[in-house]
Amino acid sequence: MALLGFALAFQRPALVAPFRSRAHLGAIALAGLVGTTIGSLLYVYAVVTAGAARTAILSSTSPLLALPLSIVFLGERLTRRILAGTLLCVAGIVLVVL
């Protein structure tokens, strides 16, 4: 919610025009609350079920899961810099597991 307020206050009007209606703001707020609530509950469930160490390792892989989704659904390009960051992320996870 704070980031949405920041965007509304400081971004160019053309970029935030779709978020000016109450229906859109309500949908964004509801999605944020539901997503945060469900995500937090699932995280706590994972800690209880799998343990803190395994859950921390699995949660650190979220950038690896976000990368293909951003390419497929958002049309982002895979650059050398992104690929290097992904490889560093994998190397960090491997070092933590060892």
Please provide the ordered H/E string of secondary-structure elements: HHHHHH
* Number of strand elements: 0
Rounded to the nearest angstrom, the distance between the terminal CA atoms is 38 Å
Q: What percent strand?
A: under 5%
What is the average per-residue confidence, as pLDDT, rounded to a whole number? 82
The secondary-structure class comes to: mainly alpha
Radius of gyration (Å): 18 Å
**Overall 3D shape:** flat
Low-confidence regions: none
The biggest beta sheet reads: none
Number of helices: 6
Helix content: over 70%
Structure description:
This protein has six helices and no strands. Helix 3 crosses helix 4 (52-59). The protein has helices at residues 2-10, 13-16, 22-50, 52-59, 62-74, 80-97. The model has no long low-confidence stretch (mean pLDDT 82). 83% of the residues lie in helices and 0% in strands. It is an all-alpha fold and 98 residues long.
Question: How would you briefly describe this protein structure?
Answer:
With 98 residues, the chain is an all-alpha fold. It is 83% helix and 0% strand.
